[in-house]
Amino acid sequence: xxxxxxxxxxxxxxxxxxxxxxxxxxxxxxxxxxxxxxxxxxxxxxxxxxxxxxxxxxxxxxxxxxxxxxxxxxxxxxxxxxxxxxxxxxxxxxxxxxxxxxxxxxxxxxxxxxxxxxxxxxxx
Length: 124
Fold this sequence. Notes:
The protein has about 120 residues and is an alpha+beta fold. The chain has helices at about 1-15, 35-45; strands at about 20-30, 45-55, 55-60, 65-70, 75-80, 85-95, 100-105, 115-120. An 8-stranded antiparallel beta barrel has the order 1-2-3-4-5-6-7-8. A hairpin with a 3-residue loop joins β3 and β4.
């Protein structure tokens, strides 16, 4: 099922514009704000793929989102609907170092999560 979602997400983003696809591997993760390590891993997978096409982003884990380039960084935002509450996940990718970080953007009085991060390599 995950492969189908990945293919469907990436297919809808593929256009005549140049698409960059990265495979990202998590090397660090904070469990602050979560009840357990496995709960944090549900939000921050060990491996994921990220596609950037213009101002659109796609992820095999988070789905479709938007991306902006700022100061040599790509900041992708993916809306997440969890039990009727819409928040978002932000992935910041720095091509110069191939490093990325991801965090859960929570609203209200929820604890802010430190998130996770690691390295990416270009695969397409």
